[in-house]
Amino acid sequence: MPHRSGFVNILGSPNVGKSTLMNALTGIKLSIITSKVQTTRHRIMGIVNGEDFQIIYTDTPGIFRPSYKLQEQMVKSAYSALGDADIILLVTDIYESPDPSREIIRKLGKIEKPVLLLINKTDLDSQGAVNRLTTAWSGILPGAEIIPVSALKGYNLEKLLDRIISLLPESPPYYPKDEITDKSERFFVSEIVREKILINYRKEVPYSVEVEIVSFKESDEIIRISGIIYVMRDSQKGIIIGKQGLAIKKTGTMARMDLEDFFGKKVFIELQVKVKKDWRNDPRMLRQFGYI
Ligand code: GDP
Ligand code: MG
Fold first, then answer.
1. Is residue 48 classed as helix, strand or coil in its secondary structure?
2. In the structure, what pLDDT confidence band is assigned to residue 134 with cuts at 50, 70 and 90?
3. Phi, psi of 268 (to 5 degrees)
4. What is the tens place of the pLDDT at every residue in 214-243?
5. CA 33 → CA 51, 94, 197, 254, distances in Å?
6. pLDDT of residue 204
7. At what angle do helices 157-167 and 18-26 cross, to 10 degrees?
8. Which has the closest alpha carbon to 148: 88, 95, 93?
9. What is the pLDDT of residue 1?
10. Is residue 62 a contact partner of residue 14, using CB atoms and an 8 Å limit?
11. How far apart are the C-alpha atoms of 185 and 23, rounded to whole Å?
12. Residue nearest to atom 25 of ligand 1 (CA)
């Protein structure tokens, strides 16, 4: 059989389950997941290799109306995933009402590529409700193939994988067959720390934070990591650190436990907090953090 390979890009609104799907399809936790919107800020690539195929998935930030430069870049990078895909997975869920006026829907209606529209979180609703949504969506995007799934429970993911493989173009692999992602170890460390910040702090705080890993030293027994948590204001610095440093200690401990799982090794992690005024609107900082 000829070898097949291609780019499968995952798009959709915030919180519909794009990152959960990406992790389920790749079998690794490449993307962080929380119940909060805008958890994913970058495009993240995850590669799945078979004997005669290679699927290059891309998870993207959600598509929403941006209100500062960081968000503009996030949405821009999501839209860029329309252009370089061989197959598009548009993720929606049982809560999102089918709306033909959304920009992404209008763009997808005109695109010449295969679009699989995945209705996610079907574990939370009845078959009847899912059928009604399927009918509504097929009226809006007649060219798309609709597949109800549950990324969390794994429902219909085998079928989805088979459909993806059958739609892949004939091509040699784009990446070495032992590669699993385009992102560095430092990137995953900073994402895991950011995930713990999303979990541990409330309101605007997690959205004002960027994590930079400044050193990553691996020996046979242990990985020593140091990172900087950037915030936008002095008051946020106090919140991140917490009374007697308890909040940042908790964040560091939770991150360390996940990192030890991820790397299969002992980890020591040290976190400092610095203020960078309004970094989310500063093109130089956004470039430094890899958003531009
Ligand atoms: P994203 O913003 O589109 O990447 O969404 P996430 O993957 O971060 O998921 C958002 C929330 O939805 C998280 O709390 C997930 O656990 C939850 N979620 C994702 N997929 C499913 C699913 O199939 N069923 C249920 N019940 N929850 C899900
Ligand atoms: Mg996500």
1. strand
2. very high
3. -115, 125
4. 999 999 999 999 999 999 999 999 999 999
5. 30, 18, 12, 15
6. 93
7. 80
8. 93
9. 79
10. yes
11. 17
12. 121
pLDDT digits (tens, 9 = 90+) for 93-118: 999 999 999 999 999 999 999 999 99
The residue whose C-alpha atom lies closest to atom 10 belonging to ligand 1 is 15
Q: Which two tokens stand for residue 200?
A: 């541990």
- Taking 90 as the threshold, does the pLDDT of residue 89 lie above it? yes
| Contact assessment for residue 34 and residue 15, using Cβ atoms and an 8 Å cutoff | no
Considering only CA atoms, which of 33, 193, 16 is closest in space to residue 96? 16
CA–CA dist 94, 160 (Å, integer): 18
Among 10, 15, 36, 92, the mutation site with the greatest number of ligand 1 atoms within 8 A of its Cβ is: 15
pTM over 0.90: yes
List the beta bridge partners of residue 271: 227
pLDDT in tens, 28-86: 899 999 999 999 999 999 999 999 999 999 999 999 999 999 999 999 999 999 999 99
Alpha helices in the chain (DSSP H): 18-26, 69-83, 103-110, 127-140, 157-167, 185-200, 234-241, 246-263, 283-288
Whether 292 shows a pLDDT value over 90: the answer reads no
CA–chain centroid gap for 269, Å, is 23
Is the beta carbon of 118 within 6 A of some atom in ligand 1? no
Residue 291's alpha-carbon distances to 15, 101, 131, in angstroms, are 20, 28, 39
For residue 121 and ligand 1, the question of a CB distance below 6 A is answered with yes
Nearest protein CA to atom 17 of ligand 1, as residue: 17
Residue of minimum CA distance from atom 6 in ligand 1:
17
